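anyone seen this seq b4? input:
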Amino acid sequence: MINEIGKKNSIFNTFLAELRDVNIQKDSMRFRRNLERLGEIFAYEISKVMKYEKRDIETPLGEAHMELLAEQPVLATILRAGLPLHQGMINYFDHAENAFVSAYRKYDADEDFVIKLDYVSSPDIQDKVLILTDPMLASGGSIIAALEGLFEKGAPSHTHIVCVLASEEGIKAIRKKFSLKKMTLWIGAIDDELTAKAYIVPGLGDAGDLAYGKKED
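predicted toks r here
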């Protein structure tokens, strides 16, 4: 299942527009905050499809009968670009366990690249709800590598993939690699074009560099 949040008019698209805006991008603190705010909205939307159970809450004047989350998810992200988005998720799922994946593009002399996985820091995710965040789903390589590393820690009951922007090619790669019966994609917007170097167009640029500054390759 694919949920494209930006298809419906909401404040979500205001934050997404600011992330794309080349002038507003000059303020890295605002860029990080907008990613965080989108993470919060994604968390709220995902919470609607999770399992709930009845609980009695004692108030100063009696008891309130409420439906609360039956379990907390494991929140995972890909360093470094995913950190602000992850923070938005954990702002809402504040009792969640957390996992972190280090993955990067390794280029050769012809400027072709493969995805290298450095390490995975994760709790046991067997039969738990896993939510993996990464701002961009371009070729799909980083997310596929991250999921393969995380799945070594167990088989989740359901996996949610959260991306601010995605390409059609990246979505096809995820569909080809994994069974989507236990997987849901949550995407801000789907852009049609992917360049030869696997950058999404119109996209928004390099989310990691915009959030934290340029790095040496």
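The chain has one domain: 2-52+69-212. Residues 2-52+69-212 form a domain with the Rossmann fold fold (CATH 3.40.50.2020). kinda curious what u guys think
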